[in-house]
Write a structure and sequence with these properties.
The protein folds into three domains: 51 residues, Arc Repressor Mutant, subunit A, CATH 1.10.10; 34 residues, no CATH class; 140 residues, MucB/RseB, C-terminal domain (Phosphorylase Kinase, domain 1), CATH 3.30.200. The chain has nine helices and six strands. A hairpin with a 2-residue loop joins strand 4 and strand 5. Helix 4 runs antiparallel to helix 7 and helix 5 packs antiparallel against helix 6. It is globular and about 70 Å long. The chain starts with a helix and ends with a helix.
């Protein structure tokens, strides 16, 4: 199987939804693929992280009663028609979502946990760009080349300033995937270190944050309607200097 056949079904693979034949083909491909293998590992870490960190909320009694009633009706209908299927799951899920949205209540992940989940995705994307040797889709230090390249590929318009005079040359940009959406990633050098700056929509309630994981440091801040997530293994002083320089140059 090829990467373009594998990638759309990675979630199904991680969730154990593939049959044995497809699963064996996926195993064979993932064992040798330098791109799909790390992506599966990132999805599995995300899945474990959500289970471990996301707060669970007990459904109200009325909602639980509705779901039980739907399950009983679906089971009875399946029995009469001598067929089985996952239909009751779809009914139960639709009721659960409708009630949660209709009540305006908190869903599975609070804003703080959502921000933490994005941090995990961004760090994983940074690592993939290094492991797969795919730092840039457009290689240039010219902001007038890098910035226009993203037009039509993503709804976000990154600043893409070159900071070579301050010791942080822009080497290009690429399109990455965070929360299932294409986002710009600006790539800088700090000596021998790579700094990826991911540009996402700013969110109400987001706060500046520093995260250190697996030897990499992430800094997050917002400026206007954009949120910036910078990742690198550069030293703390150098990374702090980069952030200050980038924010000064972009008005953030």
């Amino acid at each position: 199987m090829q990467c373009d056949e594998i990638r759309p079904r990675l979630d199904a693979y991680v969730d154990g939804e593939l049959d044995e034949t497809d699963r064996a083909l996926f195993h064979e491909h993932l064992a040798d693929c330098p791109e799909c293998g790390p992506e599966v590992a990132a999805l599995e870490r995300l899945r474990v992280g959500i289970r471990q960190q996301a707060p669970a909320y007990r459904a109200p009694q009325a909602l639980r009663s509705q779901i039980r009633a739907v399950i009983r009706r679906e089971a009875a209908a399946s029995s009469r028609n001598t067929r089985t299927g996952p239909g009751w799951l779809a009914y139960a899920a639709s009721i659960l979502i409708a009630v949660a949205v209709g009540s305006g209540g908190t869903w599975w992940i609070s804003g703080e946990h959502q921000q933490d989940t994005i941090a995990d995705e961004v760090i994983d994307s940074h690592l993939r760009s290094l492991l797969a040797d795919h730092l840039t889709d457009v290689a240039s230090s010219d902001s007038h080349t890098v910035k226009p390249w993203f037009a039509g590929r993503t709804e976000l318009s990154p600043p893409g300033v070159d900071l070579a005079a301050q010791g942080f040359p822009l080497i290009g940009g690429r399109l990455d995937l965070v929360e299932g959406k294409p986002v710009p990633a600006l790539v800088y050098r700090a000596g021998k270190h790579v700094i990826n700056v991911f540009v996402l929509p700013g969110r109400a309630g987001d706060h500046a944050a520093t995260v250190t994981r697996r030897g990499y440091t992430l800094r997050h801040w917002t400026a206007g309607d954009l949120g910036y997530w910078a990742v690198s293994d550069a030293g703390p002083d150098e990374f702090a200097k980069f952030e200050h320089t980038f924010r000064s140059a972009t008005g953030g």
